[in-house]
Amino acid sequence: MVTLDAKLLEILVCPEDRGPLHHVAGECLYNPRLRRAYRIDDGIPVLLIDEAVTITDDAEHARLIGSSQTDPR
To answer: What is the pTM of this model?
Structure first.
C-alpha cells in the first residue's frame, strides 16, 4: 500500500472544483461533492479530469467516504 505525504495531501485539490479531496489509502483521492475518484499510480496522484472515475453507486460513494484517511478542510 502506497501512502502519500501529509504535506502533499494538504495542498492537493480537485482540478475541477478546486475543493479538498479525501485520501482513500492505497486506492485514490476522492471528491465527494462531484463523486469523482482520481487514481494514484506508484504514489503519484493522477489529477486529470478526463481520467477521473465518476462514482454513481451510493454504496461505493459511502464506502469511499468511510475509508477516507484525511479530513478535508
So the answer is: 0.89
